[in-house]
Structures
1.
Amino acid sequence: MSDVLIPRRDLDFLLGDWLRLDELLEAPTFATHTRDDVAAVLDLSERVAADLFLPVYKRADQVEPTLDADGVKVLPEIAAAVRGYAELGLFAAGFDEALGGMALPSLVCTASLAQFMAANLSASAFVMLTTANARLIAAFGTPAQIDAFARPGIAGQAMGTMCLSEPQAGSSLADIRTRAEPDGEDALGRRFRLTGNKMWISGGDHDVSDNIVHLVLAKVPGPDGQLVEGTSGISLFIVPKRLPSGERNDVAVAGLNHKMGYRGIPNCLLNLGERGGAVGWLVGEIGQGLPIMFQMMNEARINVGLGAAAVAYRGYRHALRYATERLQGRPLDAPRGVTIAPVPIIEHADVKRMLLAQKVYAEGALALILYCARLVDEHDDADAGELLGLLTPVAKTWPSEWGLVANDLAIQVHGGYGYTRDFDVEQLYRDNRLNPIHEGTTGIQALDLLGRKTLKSNGRGYAVLRQRVDATIARAEDDPRLAAYGELLADAWDHIAAVVDGLRPLDPAAALENATPFLSAFGHAVLAWLWLDQAVVAASLGDDAFHRGKLWACRFFFETEVPKIATWLDFVDSHSDVASAAPADIF
Amino acid sequence: MKILVPVKRVVDYNVKVRVKPDQTGVELANIKMSMNPFDEIAVEEAIRLKEKGIATEIVAVSIGVQQSQETIRTALAMGADRGILVTTDVAVEPLAVAKLLAKIAEEEQPQLIILGKQAIDDDSNQTGQMLAALLGWAQGTFASKVEPSGDTVNVTREVDGGLETLTLKLPAIVTTDLRLNEPRYASLPNIMKAKSKPIAAKTPADYGVDVTPRLTTVKVAEPAKRQAGIKVKTVDELIDNLKSVGVLS
């Protein structure tokens, strides 16, 4: 619909040709859906994203949410866009039919959401938070809790949040201090009264929906009245803004955070229990809060990657349009003394380099997330589950880090214009800058990947990944254009395995001190695999410009990005203490 | 009241249309196709009449290649009740379409046929008028308001001088203009429900209509590129120039 959203041609390639949508639709879970249904869903998404979400992109940045005595108000057009999304039944797309959903594959829902995120990331955050919230309640809540709190979210009538961080504890959830005191039991389960402060709560209050369902982590005091140390004392509670009686719960907005970007959705500091304790119902068992919350966290992490990919893609589309329209300069090899008209800047080698970099980052990031969505759809397959777990920190981080680089290059292609607020690319950059931070920073993801998912894991995820990487290499061997990349890819993964072996004997602190460069290398090796895999498929489909573009992107990735892998890995392999040993007084 | 709504599959209005290198037509391979926007307005109007309790059944008809079924599905997802797909690989012309629709109207006996005033691919603006002539029914073209009451329908038309309101005896033909309504999106649940609505599969032969084109396309070409202008120094010079090319006297 709009030339700045994600081209349908690419989504059709990624879903249909590369990720074999037809095979997925043959699975019994999805057998009621056809390729035509998927096309209709993508048509609808593209159109509604262009009509409702895109036109308010800029204004939502200029007119921030406000807080007054009645609570938080968002830009009315943002509220209208989210309500429009709800009226079309899109919140329900991925839920089971028993819950009023459409049971569409995660792959299709993800592709649909990508368009909304490209059009307006912060408006789409209402969707991403609410669906993840409702899915958690649907998975772990009692039937009464599901009816009261998940169904309104699935219908898009009540928005959801996740309340983990506190002013003094964000990445370190073990240190949270919100207390939950037992307050009897009713039809909705074990009732508690919560007191504490929750920080960085996106959608913490607003006038998009009448009710808001908060999922809150808190600690239940022991018999001595003390909170249990560590994460094992954390429990999860449903704390609605409005109680089933219609009365306001004891949840107050203490303030709004004034953000660099991502401004369509308010970000709040919430005070629970200013008037004696916010009513909350326990989800699952006491002490099970964190493992349960991780279901929502993992989904949110992949969706953060999706948002980052979508915004990177949008920036690339803007840069591409500008580069084909903007006339500036002449070819370097133009004959002297002859008057030549200026050329579109896409003719210049350095602009092409910047466009290619954006192409591999943006399209690559989207491919990674859709691959993960396909793994979500294969949930009956244990291998797919292991691989998804291993790839989740990459899905969160790679699009966030490299999508931001793409947005930086989109500004660069626009030159001075890109630095002005008259164009969208500076806003895209500011919006995307949140993504390496929220839902677990890049540093936290690196610890997750190298610690929990590598050194402390049974290695099954790695085995599945290597098997799939080798299958891609084998398929690339038959194509003279791609065979050499297969060898480079095998080298990268052998190198990773050797580095990991070298880290195993170290004590945990030493092994993890350079976890972030390890994540960088691992992420690039995953993307090298996915680019080669896409190139193999594209090569088999034809020699038109679109498919040639995928091969060209693969070549660019192997020539310019893959060499970085060894640099990162050599540093990790040196077991350098240059960062960890740096005394604080040298700074 | 039964309403018949013909819907045409055309190149999506957002697609930048390109002429084929051999100049025989426009590029259709790998091009996004969707329902003619004027037909969407027709479907929407029929649905609104049904929601008001005036219409009882809406039948969407498409004539064209097999994939025109998707266009009917869109109409069904918006709220039409059933479809009729007349399949042909021939590039049908307005007269052939009008003849087929006349046969379908004889079978279906609708009280109202609402068509888009034209299709955005060939801009013919003929089918509704031809259909009215073939059936001998009254016609209200370029409608911006449609109000049936009893055995008549009031149609407000957009004409050069403003608005003209006609009272037509039913059954009648109405063709839609842009300002008649704003079509709805088909919601996700309705897209899924549309799958179980019936679509009858027909061919032109079933209706005994010969759809062979009567026109030959000689050549399709891009519009001529605009020539560069000239700069003039004074208003007088501008006026002289305009006079010399004959636009001022």
2.
Amino acid sequence: MTNAIELRDVELHFPRKKGFLGGLLGLMKVRDWAEKGRFTALQGIGLDVNQGEVLGVIGRNGSGKSTMLRVMAGVYRADAGSVKVRGRISLLAGVSVGLNHNLTGRENVHLYGSILGHTKEAMEGMLADILDFSELGEFIEQPLRTYSSGMKARLGLAIASAIEPEVLLIDEVLGVGDPQFREKSKARILDLVKSTGTVVIVSHSFALMKEICDRVVLMHNGSIEGVGSPEEIIAAYYELVG
Amino acid sequence: MGKGVTKDLELVEPNPAVPILAGPSRFIRTMLNESYLIRNLVRRDLRARYGRAYLGFGWIFLEPLLLSAVYYILFAMIADRPEPNYALHVIIGVIIWGHFGKSLQATIGCLTQGGSLIKQVYFPREILAISPVLTQLLISIISLTAVIPVMWYLGVMPGSSIWMLPVALVLATMLALGIGLIFAPLNAISQDVSHLFRFIVRAGFFISPVMWTYEMMLQRASGGWVDLIMLNPMVVPITYARHGLDGTALSLDLDHVLYSFGFAILSLLIGMAVFKRWEARVVKYL
């Protein structure tokens, strides 16, 4: 079985105090200083995500789920251990991350698309699909500040999900908007999951986990507590939280 | 794209550490490869600054003109007979110094300003430093057209030394980007750095030839004082821009010119290396 993502003994620390001198010494990896003012967000993470699999990640708030996704995406570089990914990776976290309220919808398609690493030609090719999903019509030529929050969410999700990366990381983007939009965005994500090679999804929706995931990971206090079938791991989660 | 098409791809680190000596080449490669993203960010920055003002891009001309008028009146009150082209020299000084100061502060604050985006998406973070500096360069080039009516009024024509103007802009840009990149990671740890540089830019206005000229300084200072003043690498680009536009002969010492260029090149190389080395580590402080 080929791995799409390979994590080996990954450790990640965040600075606890943000003082200048301590920060500078931490940056220069002066050991005592670096270890004093930090807290460990991820510890001993070893995980193989197989190609073509949909892997769910569950755990309580603050257990390190989103941080692990960001380490996979390259947002945070691990302090120890190794992180390797096969192919183009894309993190879908929040639906209006790269949007700007002074630009028109169309300009935002290009801005957000370029932030996600796409070319101009690719974004122009996706425009019809983005327009169709976001249902913006003529509003696409208006500045974003004239949009309702629902319209912004539709545009953001349309742009972020128009891509087809080899590895897709999804961090809780399904909880926004009205029920109709939530249904629509869920269907969109499911389409994306079907067409993308490998998916890692963080969600509190266990029904969704059971529906789409091949395996689920349980995280607790920055470590992996267990990996297994969705039913097995969800049961372990309830045991853990009591 | 169907499932299982990625078998030929290698397992690679998503954001590998960059050896310090490879920093400048990676930085330049990003600049060349990411022109689409840079263009989009420049458009965003321009729209954010001028898009909602009634006078819009007119402020690019108005700001240096109004500022220069204030400084000119102020100086004319202090020294009763300024040199004939003084108004022109002040406006050039204001634009070039403004370009340096704004580019420097934008570079220093690039990681803190881009914080929310940095934490959600991975993209080469040097883009965040490059795009505001290019935006500022574009604004400064447009604001330089504000000197045309002043030159026309004074009857000044640029000569063959006009090449010194673009060189001055490039030099000021390199200095701002270089110094800014060295301190941007430190500013992510503590924003004291950007407060300190706001003060430096304000104080630098007085110790740089904005309200005075290199030639005025030579009339008053000599020997060691001149060398001390010339330690400020911004004296050369501002003086270059002035002579480039008014067509008069340049009397700068070659040593001072070489010092300024050397300072710019060295700070840019160090800046690119330091930024690439540290940006991934300081993201955790944002």
3.
Amino acid sequence: MDAILEVRGLTKRYGATIALNNVSLTLPRGKIVGLLGPNGSGKTTMLKIVAGLLTPTSGVALADGKVVGPETKSVISFLPERTYLPDWMTVVDCLDYFEDFYTDFDRKRAVEMLNRLSVPADRKMRALSKGTREKVQLVLVMSRRAKLYLLDEPIGGVDPATRDYILDTIIGNYDSEATILISTHLIADVEKVLDEFVFLKEGIVTMHDTTDNVREAQGKSVDELFREVFRC
Amino acid sequence: MAWQFSPNRPIYQQIVDEIEMRILNGTYEGGMRLPSVRDLALLAAVNPNTMQRALAELENMGLVATQRNSGRTVTTDAEAVSRARAEKASALIETFLLQMKTLGLERSEVLGLLAKEGPKEEEHGCNS
């Protein structure tokens, strides 16, 4: 099978700052991949370009064999770092909204997950806690039957119990054909769900391997390796 | 409860060890149907691909069998289980002897200590 994501010579500059520097990367289908790097290493820029929200300065990104653009949004489900759902909407409004936008949205699955989380469906977003809003957003994003999921720091701002729940949600909804790219700097928490990882350092991919290989060849976890590679 | 994994070995190998132990000590009885890959992955809080790889390994070892249309079951081959148990036991003994050697004890001294230790108590260190 061909790659779900192929990125070639991707560069993104913000004025004098280079956020991504000639990045090339190919991701297979059916894997959970960690995009790992310290703050400011270019993770969010990378995800936003693949999601079609930012234009690269140079280089190209192909998702499901097509150049990223309006068309690829139908196969990519993106969870941004901050929720974008308007705060006057109720949870039910948000479900309607996703159903209108995405033909691959599985409403039944979303409702089940929200019930399990005891999220009050008639409540407005503004009346929910920050953590609960993040859960709603994650449930919506994971309820699409997409081919590529891009999750930007899905576990950044939540407590450890919720973190576990989010990882469970990711494992439980994972479909063996789809690839999930998760950006995070909380490696120890996600490591056991990753097939592969990519280290991003100052806009450059410094390593791309499987987690098993690292443990087998070096006898250490990706978390330990990360601490060595990125020692301050 | 998620399973605990040590950082220095591939997770699939640790899952193989854990499930093997459950089969060897009878927690998972012969013929028992194993949960689906997805459910086991959730139980252990690991990637389903990792669980898949571990189960394939257990199949290679002859401890788990794939049934047509009905998932995987623990082998009913008692001989395969006792063979695996014997292998596991000698591996553990080897590790133990190495540790004793590091401690500065000769083989004969170790045996002496074991003989003294032997009849005192029946210990069961396995987690269920």
